[in-house]
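Re: weekly structure request thread

Next one in the queue (260 aa):
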Amino acid sequence: MLEAIRRRAGAPASSGRYVLISALLLALLVAPFAGASGEGKSVRGGERNPSANKSAAYTAETQILTENGTYGTRQSNKKGGDGGGAIYGCRSAPGREPCVRANNLENGRAFEFQATSGTEGGFIEVGKGSPNTKAVPFNTNASARVANLNADRVDDLHAADIVAQAKDLWAVVAADGGLSRKNAAAGSSKLGTGEYEVAFGSDVTACAYNVTLGSTDTTEAPAGEAGASQRAGNAQAVAVVTRDSSGTKADRPFHLTVNC
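Done, posted below.
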């Protein structure tokens, strides 16, 4: 066939091999670009890049490199009241590359977020469910204290509740029901002869109580006995009964410890 072409073109027979070589070279050069999805082409504004075909995608990493004193790129949406600045999506599996990574090769900040106004800086959603009790918002290898971070509650407890529960709850109560000394006790009162209530700032129904007669100062502890139980109708209080040596209810000062 090449010979017939050569004869019609009036070319010498030796030129046929050059035509074949040229065709092979052209095929080798075109083949890589035929399988690509837009590499080497300009990015088109207001359109899907690299193609309107949803199945098409760049097959190599697209890099934008700058060297200036501000930012490498800037994305902004100028429509007031609606519309975000950028969205990044990926299909990365656990342990693989995240959808977004900011890598500072020096020792400054890797990221910074600012909400110009409003009362919420951002929201982290993990999986489904509100709340999702099986997910954590993030992990970190940093262990230093974070300045200005206010965690209102941990396990539904305020910081004061956590501190109080980390220590034994106790109270030293005078014979008239007055609270002499305390740790996490909210108050105490005398309900009747030898009958007292000591209130704490949390539920103490699942705790153990230990009460003994004892003075509130340097005087000798009085004789008699004391006992403690849950306070009916008040889950945050302990009922204490004090008696004299004969077992009759009598007003006595006491020391109460609650272990939870």
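Residues 25-35 have pLDDT under 50 and may be disordered. DSSP finds three helices and eight strands in the chain.
Next request, please.
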